[in-house]
Write a structure and sequence with these properties.
With 233 residues, this protein is α+β, with helices and mostly antiparallel strands. 37% of the residues lie in helices and 24% in strands. It is built from six helices and nine strands.
Length: 233
């Protein structure tokens, strides 16, 4: 076994990616050079592990994890064992990151290869709100993320709106900007311009317009509800 193979084997042993038989072979080898290489790996990785700050997963992560393990619709059982799920999630995430990091190290350490630098991806913010029509059960749930608008209608439209269309508006410093006609039942998804100033605290409004929406590019009918956007993530 040459020095490079010994280094890779020691790294796999410390990371825990060897199977049981291979681990027993390493432990029974009594190879002083291999043992020294194992200590070097432990000294490299231990400080990195200590620098990692714990991150609490968002609720959606818990829901996805419970669903993937078959407990997605068993809240009482999941709630009674929170720490078991936390340990499982943390172990899986740690193992996956270590295996990925070691794989990248192996590829980068091969002679003649140029290291690859991956750009950091910044997730697009998600903004949400709910617009409710006073003295009515009618409401719309709105979310905006990565220039995609989703609107879901709920409740029952008032009789006065039966022959009119509902149009959604973003209120900007330059005036209202139409986000299109929205349904009174069901859901609609559509792309919106990247230049629109969506942000936490921005105001949305719904007006009642003739069939097909406002003919002027500005609200012509009564504004039945307004709400401000909140940043969800």
């Amino acid at each position: 076994m040459d020095a490079h193979e010994r280094q890779l084997l020691a790294g796999e042993y410390v990371l825990g990616t060897l199977d049981a038989a291979a681990r027993r072979e390493v432990e029974a080898a009594r190879d002083p050079e291999l043992e020294r290489e194992i200590r070097r790996w432990e000294q490299r990785l231990a400080p990195l592990a200590l620098k990692l700050a714990p991150i609490a997963p968002r609720p959606i992560v818990w829901l996805n994890l419970l669903h993937a393990t078959g407990d997605g619709f068993a809240p009482m059982r999941a709630a009674s064992q929170p720490y078991r799920w936390l340990r499982t999630w943390a172990a899986v995430a740690t193992a996956a990151s270590l295996v990925l990091g070691f794989g990248l190290y192996r590829e980068a350490s091969r002679p003649g290869l140029v290291p690859i630098v991956f750009p950091k991806r910044v997730p697009a913010p998600v903004y949400v709100t709910q617009l409710a029509v006073p003295k009515s059960t009618m409401h719309w749930t709105v979310s905006v993320s990565a220039n995609q608008l989703a609107v879901r209608a709920g409740g029952e439209a008032p009789a006065a709106a039966a022959k009119l269309d509902a149009e959604l508006w973003l209120i900007t410093a330059a005036g209202p900007v139409s986000l299109g006609v929205i349904p009174k039942a069901g859901e609609v998804r559509r792309a919106v311009a990247e230049t629109l100033p969506f942000a936490a605290g921005a105001t949305l409004a719904v007006s009642l317009e003739p069939a097909g929406g406002s003919p002027t590019g500005a609200p012509t009918g009564p504004v039945v509800t307004t709400a401000t956007l909140l940043q969800a993530s």
